[in-house]
Design goal:
heterodimer; A: 200 residues; B: 89 residues; mainly alpha; 2 domains
């Protein structure tokens, strides 16, 4: 919990700095976060490679975990269905299109802006950023309440890069292969699923 | 995307090669990098006018969809987790 609060604090500090333009234009650019991400993943890799027991941990993984992307998919769409019931003015297909960004906010918001206009596109952007934030900030609680697979499922398409470090820390290193596999499948499905719901 | 994954595999290789004498502060470095990344995500969001303006009305809708979508997926993940653990026992 303390970890999540520190993360939240840094995030809010970042918003403040970005909003008030306190940093030089390039400092907050996507480039810098890309390098930070590369460094992060390098160290995630390092912690896996230097762990002598890791191969035995991988072997203990259950083949049933291959179904995790399907569970994420069905669970997300059910959630979007309930959201559509609450938000009367949005159609079920619209809510499902937003939800099927699975945290991949850049791509899904671009797609939805093109098919459905800027308003729904912005909703997709914010909604998928929020999903990533819920995963990053809430991962410890998600593990406690919903089991070790929960942060992976919540992370959606981001589980092979941005949310992988937090998954490593909360679910355990042995879940890294599942997480990468899950992220890859979800990532790949985003353009197809979003397009499908936009055309309904 | 694939460059990022390549970095991870580079890390795995170097970690494996140096496993006899591992670098001890990996967890601390990871924590600092996660903070840096969230800070930078904040900077990007805070600097995006369209996003910051939309935070009011649109933000609530987005929040509802995101929360329910996440809740649905973690519930589904819990079912699979129970199933997998049950089989393991």
């Amino acid at each position: 919990m303390k970890g999540s609060l520190i993360i939240l604090l840094f995030f809010l500090l970042g918003i403040g700095c970005g909003y008030l333009n306190m940093l030089p234009a390039d400092a907050g650019g996507e480039d810098v976060s890309f390098y930070a991400l590369c460094a992060l993943l390098f160290f995630v890799g390092y912690s896996i490679g230097s762990d002598a027991d890791i191969i035995t941990k991988f072997r203990k993984l259950n083949p049933g975990l291959a179904f995790l992307p399907l569970m994420t998919f069905l669970g997300t769409l059910s959630g979007c269905f309930v959201a559509a019931l609450i938000l009367h003015h949005r159609s079920i297909a619209d809510c499902m299109a937003v939800g099927s960004g699975f945290g991949y906010y850049s791509l899904s918001s671009i797609f939805i802006t093109q098919y459905k206009g800027a308003e729904l596109g912005t909703i997709a952007l914010v909604s998928n950023v929020v999903r990533e934030l819920i995963t990053l900030l809430g991962a410890p609680l998600l593990v406690r309440w919903f089991g070790n697979l929960a942060p992976i499922s919540a992370g959606g398409a981001t589980t092979m890069d941005t949310t992988l470090p937090i998954i490593t820390q909360t679910s355990g290193k042995e879940f890294v292969p599942v997480s990468i596999y899950h992220g890859f499948v979800m990532d790949f499905s985003v353009p197809f699923v979003v397009t499908f719901f936009c055309q309904l | 995307m694939f460059i990022v994954i390549a970095f991870m595999f580079g890390g795995i290789l170097i970690g494996y090669l140096t496993r006899k004498k591992p670098f001890r502060y990996t967890q601390q470095v990871l924590a600092v990098l996660v903070w840096a990344l969230l800070f930078l995500l904040g900077v990007i969001i805070g600097g995006n006018e369209q996003l910051m303006k939309g935070m009011g009305a649109i933000g609530l809708e987005a929040f509802i969809i995101a929360t329910l979508a996440t809740l649905g997926s973690v519930t589904a993940a819990k079912c699979l987790w129970h199933f997998v653990r049950h089989k393991d026992k």
